[in-house]
Amino acid sequence: MRIKKRGLFGILLLALMFVLAACGGGSESTSGGSDSGDKESKNSGGSGLKDTYTVASDTSFVPFEFKENGEYVGFDIDLINAIADEVGFEIKLETTNFDGIIPGLQTGSFDIALAGITITDERKKTVDFSDPYYDAGLRIGVSVDNKDINSIEDLKGKTVATRLGSTSADYIKKNIEGAEASQFEQLDQVYLAVENGSADAVLYDSPNVAYYIQTKGEDSLKMVGELYQAEQYGIAFAKGQDELVSKVNEALATLKENGKYDEIYEKWFGEKPE
Question: Any idea which GO molecular function terms this record carries (predicted)?
Answer without folding.
Answer: ligand-gated monoatomic ion channel activity
